[in-house]
From TrEMBL:
Signal peptide range: none
Main localization, broad class: endoplasmic reticulum
Subcellular location per the Swiss-Prot or TrEMBL entry: Endoplasmic reticulum membrane; Microsome membrane
Record's protein name: Cytochrome P450
Family per record: Belongs to the cytochrome P450 family.
Gene Ontology terms, MF aspect: metal ion binding; monooxygenase activity
Cofactor dependency: heme
């Protein structure tokens, strides 16, 4: 029947068949069934020319069992013009697959599997690709599921979902196939993506049904015919249908991969895909090595001439001997710790080489303060790293210098003051946003959740209110995408591959992360441009709604006066807005999240904060004015910022002229790192530098004391432009949340088990974690 079906499909191709038949007769004869010179070929039924042996395509396994009765356990058939040796019976199959594992171990890549997977993956590939993918998959299947307690737990959890599903049928008749397939597919999802789907999730249903469909159709007569005679493809509709199915599934998988890539944390792999991506990143780095070595030789002479030795003008700060080109191999995962270590050996002003670039590191409170405050002008330029030079081309505030920086910083400061910072209007906005955040926490009714997203949406909305004049709902996809992209950029800006790019920009083609960040920045700028266009259309010069309006109004007046018009241009507006989001969202959001995590970890400190808030504020909304009556709470916020050490390396500075500093000579244009970690953990300034100890900020009477070495916002000419806004946000968000909620570890997790290891990135965020917010009312 099946063959008949196939032949009916084929009938329109008959004339073509006949023509090819004649041409191939000779060929078939030569590939023949006869014995070769090297030995006897396995016996088998005589094939028809071209068509080969007419095996029942519906149940080929039955036909082949039948044939083995006649021809023995090793026999030949022809699948179309292709010779196929069939092995039958336990002894023969075992002997071939186990005792001759190597000889029989390759996969036959059928035309269908070649079209669908092009030699990639595990199932349909051979050689080095197969070996590497199989080995990687095996290791990771073991890590994420197979044969481990973790795997057992996942399967038991899924079995419970399946039981529930069966129970829903209340004994009525149903088809077991769907729910059972959903359950087993979820085990793969848990291993691969790190999460399961609900059985009624439409994305999941489609995925499972497509996969089943593909497997069914891959064994259909038409696909089998296609594998025999690939040139029949245009006549076999099923084939294109299955190939489209496979392509659609690959597209879906790609979108899950993209999502996971965006939130990838190399320290915390959620599943197979995460591990693959992390492995890919590390490969990316190692593949750069041969190139590095080649250029190493070329640049040896150059490096030697720029050397580490002293110049005529004075003594250069000491430091470890650099390798040619590579410079000093600083730990790229935790460079701030490596630099603190080096300062113990080389003192508070020392030189390292970041690739071929000379960098002077300033360590410890006294030195950093002396440089940034007493020599503010000399140390006040920004080093514009290749990544940001590429992205912002010297525009905006953070990554610009000279007249452009001065003018943009001044304008931004005035407008941040007008629209938020240190004013009643700003306080109102933050309080309103805190209420939205409280609502989100309340809806969770004490269940476990990740604080990161809602907190970041809230702080981002403060910048939106200042910049655009309006906030977004937390489920607005535009807000979600913007926050995600910004956070991702900040994380990737501190990744080893971007650090490597900043040292050796010619490595760019090998470092995929770099193009990814640049694309992310470009996408954010495009989005900001569309908001600017909207605001421009409804601009009223008498009533500025926010920073963008003020910039546009200023641009109009500058154009009239023909002064400075070139600075109040589109690119500066775009870059300023992007800078405010990048600098103002992740930093403040991460600090609030650290604060909540620390409260859950140290409940006795949370007790004291809540006692103070209850006593001083009671049930009314906390306001900025309350700060001076809440010294313990204020000390906890300060200590959170000290311990969180959000910007551990600071942003890089550069000398604006030749400088003589602490007996050393530093040339104009040298990169300078005023190492904030070394200030916030300076052993001569803090009694317990490595512990969470709010008493650092309290005197004997329990009053708040100002500590000069408290420098999370840096100092001097480049000091954080949003400091007073950030401090107001931290105080209002923290007190409002602590007044309403008790923060705890998830059920079953001990406080000791809450991890304070930060994630790797441009800023230090808490590692992904969950907490419970229990309502206190
Ligand atoms: C807890 C929150 C924050 C922390 C810890 C923080 C920290 C910093 C640090 C360390 C710098 C580099 C200073 C230097 O180069 O010496 C900086 C720069 C900057 N910050 Fe913040 N920041 C925070 C919040 C904000 C907010 C809310 C905004 C925006 C409204 C903002 C806007 C900026 C800008 C524009 C710069 C660049 C200044 C310049 O180059 O002149 N920051 N911040």
């Amino acid at each position: 029947m099946a063959l008949l079906e196939g032949l009916i499909q084929l009938s329109s191709a008959f004339p073509l068949l006949v023509a090819v038949l004649l041409l191939l007769l000779v060929y078939l004869h030569s590939t023949g069934v006869s014995n070769t010179e090297k030995g006897k070929a396995p016996p088998g039924p005589t094939p028809l020319p071209i068509l080969g042996n007419l095996i029942n395509l519906k149940k080929p396994y039955d036909s082949l069992c039948e044939l083995s009765k006649k021809y023995g356990s090793v026999f030949t058939i022809y699948s179309g013009p292709k010779k196929v040796v069939v092995l039958a019976g336990y002894k023969t199959v075992k002997k071939a697959l186990v005792n001759h594992a190597e000889e029989f171990g390759d996969r036959e890549i059928t035309p269908f599997s070649r079209d669908a997977f092009e030699g990639h993956g595990i199932l349909f590939c051979n050689g080095e690709n197969w070996r590497e993918m199989r080995r990687f998959a095996l290791t990771n299947l073991r890590n994420f599921g197979m044969g481990k307690r973790r795997g057992e737990e996942k399967i038991i959890e899924e079995a419970q979902h399946l039981i529930q599903m069966f129970q829903n049928f209340k004994g009525t008749a149903f088809d077991t196939k769907e729910p059972v397939n959903y359950a087993v597919s979820n085990i793969i999802c848990a291993i691969v993506y790190g999460s399961r789907f609900e059985y009624n999730d439409p994305r999941f249903k489609v995925m499972v049904s497509r996969a089943n469909d593909t497997i069914r159709l891959a064994g259909s007569p038409s696909v089998q015919l296609y594998n025999m005679f690939p040139w029949l493809k245009p006549l076999l509709r099923n084939v294109s249908h299955v190939l489209k199915n496979v392509a659609d599934n690959l597209k879906d998988i790609q979108s899950y991969i993209n999502n996971l890539q965006e939130t990838l944390n190399p320290q915390d792999s959620r599943g197979f895909i995460d591990s693959f991506l992390t492995h890919q990143q590390s490969k990316e780095l190692s593949s750069a090595f041969p190139l590095l070595v080649a250029v190493l030789l070329l640049l040896l002479v150059y490096l030697h001439s720029t050397g580490v030795s002293n110049t005529e003008k004075g003594k250069a700060p000491p430091g470890p001997t650099p390798l040619p080109i590579l410079g000093n191999l600083i730990n790229l995962q935790k460079p701030y710790d490596s630099l603190c270590e080096l300062s113990k050996k080389y003192g508070s002003v020392f030189t390292i080489y970041s690739g071929p670039k000379k960098v002077v590191v300033l360590a410890g409170y006294k030195t950093v303060k002396q440089a940034l405050v007493n020599h503010a002008e000399e140390f006040g330029n920004r080093e514009i790293t290749p990544l940001f030079c590429n992205a912002f081309e010297g525009h905006g505030i953070i990554f610009s210098n000279g007249e452009n920086w001065r003018e943009m910083r001044r304008f931004a400061l005035t407008n941040l003051r007008n629209f938020g910072m240190g004013k009643r209007r700003g306080e109102e906005k933050i309080i309103e946003e805190a209420q939205h955040l409280i609502q989100v926490f309340e809806k969770l009714k004490g269940t476990t959740f990740d604080t990161n997203e809602p907190v970041n949406y809230a702080v981002s909305n403060i910048i939106c209110a200042i910049v655009y004049g309006s906030r977004f709902e937390y489920d607005d996809p535009r807000l979600k995408v913007m926050v995600k992209r910004t956070n991702e950029n900040i994380r990737l800006a501190g990744s080893p591959s971007v650090r490597l790019y900043n040292m050796l920009p010619w490595l760019k083609p090998l470092l995929r992360n770099v193009s990814y960040v640049l694309k992310n920045i470009a996408d954010n700028l495009k989005e900001i441009q569309s908001y600017i266009n909207n605001l421009q259309e409804t601009l009223n010069p008498q009533d500025s709604r926010g920073f963008i309006d003020s910039f546009l109004i200023r641009r109009q007046s500058e154009e009239k006066l023909e002064q400075n018009a070139n600075l109040f241009n589109e690119k500066n507006l775009l870059c300023c807005v992007a800078n405010l989001f990048a600098a103002g969202t992740n930093t403040t959001g991460a600090t609030v999240c650290w604060g909540l995590l620390l409260m859950a970890k140290y409940p006795h400190i949370q007790d004291r904060v809540q006692e103070e808030i209850d006593r001083v504020v009671g049930g009314r909304q906390p306001v900025v004015e309350d700060r001076k009556s809440l010294p313990y709470t204020d000390a906890v916020i300060h200590e959170t910022q000290r311990v969180a050490n959000i910007v551990p390396l600071n942003l890089p500075h550069a000398t604006s002229c030749d400088v003589h500093f602490q007996g050393f000579f530093i040339e104009k244009g040298t990169i300078v790192i005023p190492l904030l970690t070394s200030v916030l953990r300076d052993e001569s300034e803090w009694a317990k530098p490595y512990m969470f100890h709010p008493e650092h900020f309290l005197d004997d009477q329990g009053r708040l004391i100002k500590r000069d070495a408290f420098m999370p916002f840096s100092a001097g000419r480049r000091v954080c432009l949003g400091e007073s806004l950030a401090r107001m946000e931290l105080f209002l968000f923290f007190t409002s949340l602590l007044q309403r909620f008790r923060f705890t570890a998830p059920p079953g997790v001990l406080e000791d088990e809450l991890d304070l290891t930060p994630t790797l990135g441009g800023t230090l965020n808490p590692s992904p974690h969950k907490l419970c917010a229990l309502s206190r009312s």
